[in-house]
Specification:
The protein is of the alpha/beta class. The chain is built from 5 helices and 11 strands; from the N terminus they run E-E-E-H-E-H-E-E-E-E-H-E-E-E-H-H.
Length: 209
């Protein structure tokens, strides 16, 4: 199964045989069988880019990898990497950027590995020096339109990391206003503006710890 966020709404791709077992949260869904034509995908992408009234859209097809391949052909693919960084107190590093709480991440450069990029981006965005990468957590997908009006699919690889550093310096040139270590339970005891794909990563992390 694949889960892609478009304008904040999750778009699910699943095989037809697994379709009925998919559990969703909310009441307002679109559930359809993919007919094998990319024009069909364009219609749903347009729909999700223009409104946020749906809790989710689900498309199923016998060959989910074919569906996924057709979808990717519509987009320019950008790969990124980032991490959930834990300190000695088991607190997690969060950043605040452009009105949302987020996790440090960034684009993978040419000839750079995913793990290498994840560490570099965490260091650049938060000012941490000592960062030890541990386990892979999850891959997330979300779309946006770039300055050239091209549709972009960002594929982000997430890892758990640990640090003994305490000094944080948010990267202002990347519009990061805050970088703080938080207790996740306390942090989510109050409403927070946070992207769905980031919540997915945190949920996967919590299940593994």
């Amino acid at each position: 199964m694949y889960k892609i966020y478009i304008n904040g709404t999750p778009l699910f791709f699943t095989s037809t045989k697994d379709f009925k077992s998919l559990e969703l949260v909310g009441d307002n869904f679109i559930k359809m069988r993919y007919v094998g034509k990319k024009k069909f995908l364009h219609n749903y992408i347009d729909l999700l880019e223009k409104n946020t009234e749906f809790d989710a859209v689900v498309l199923h097809f016998p060959d989910v990898e074919k569906l996924w391949s057709d979808f990717k052909e519509i987009f320019k693919i950008i790969k990124a990497a980032g991490g959930i960084v834990e300190n000695d107190k088991k607190e997690v590093l969060m950043i605040y950027r452009m009105g949302h709480w987020d996790l440090p991440k960034g684009k993978i450069e040419k000839k750079e590995g995913k793990k290498e990029a994840a560490i570099r981006e965490v260091q650049e965005e938060t000012g941490l020096q000592s960062v030890d990468l541990e386990e892979f957590i999850h891959t997330t997908y979300h779309t946006y339109t770039d300055r050239k009006e091209r549709r972009v699919l960002k594929v982000t690889y997430w890892y758990t990391m640990k640090t003994t550093d305490t000094e944080l310096v948010p990267q202002a040139e990347e519009d990061i206003e805050e970088a703080v270590f938080v207790d996740l339970k306390d942090f989510f005891s109050s409403p927070r503006k946070i992207y769905g794909n980031i919540l997915d990563v945190i949920e996967k992390y919590q299940k593994n710890t």
